[in-house]
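Journal club prep — side note

Before the paper discussion, L.F. wants everyone to see what a predicted structure for a comparable chain looks like in token form. Sequence:
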Amino acid sequence: MKINEALKHYSLVPTRYQKRGKVSIVGTNKGTFVFKNQKLNLEILNYLRSRNFDYMPRFINDIRHDEYQITEYLSDLDIPKEQKILDLIHLVALLHSKTTHYKEIDLDDYETIYEDIDNNLNYLYSYYTDIITLIENKVFMSPSEYLLARNITKIYDSIDRCKNMLEDWYKLIKDKRKQRQVVLHNNLKLDHFIRNESSYLISWDKAKIGNPVFDLYKLYRNHALDFDFSDILNEYESHYPLMKDERALFHTLISMPSLIEFNDTEYNMCMKISKDIDIIYKTERLTTKKA
């Protein structure tokens, strides 16, 4: 069903169209609505409703059968981004609190997480060893290559720190048989939060059940350099405290350095490398801060 067919089906007369990313915002005779051509996980949606978590836009169509999600358009208040991120994390804590349950888990499940992280770290080490060997064999380095070469020791240090954190996490969970599970929004960023008379999370297309730290990890990856994450984590834990093993896993995940590929302009590569190195330093301060 195309947008025009959906409009006709729901007796909506369009007055204006606006394309914004993957969604279309359509003004109609009955108000303004957002159209998104994406299926939702109905089990997750029904579970959220059963837990009285209503902090999402109202659907006006039958999403069980329609190709489009059609939701009411919600305007966003102009508030400082520092306040907005705290409002977002408060809502995430509420989401996790309302959907908490415990799952029997086999040691193999933990070993899968352990092996995935360990394999990624080993790959990062090999990748950077290969690329720095190529760079150091050059007669003249480009500015971005020189920037990476100057900071390669810090990248190696972060890989080593992450391996030690991974071992510490595994010691904490190897004898556990239950894991705390929640509904994960799984795509947290400031653009997916709206604040007006209430708070709303949008873009639920990737929602799933899992460990709560994965929402925190995604948010950190999207905004590590934008905010003081100590304040954000304090706000979250004031409503939904992390368990010791969850905090250890979160610290491990955010401490993994990014894989830097030389596939952009020289200016953009210098910016990217500088940003990734800044994140390494900021993450080290965050994960070593004493409670």
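L.F.'s comment for the group: The mean pLDDT is 93. Keep this in mind when we get to the figures.
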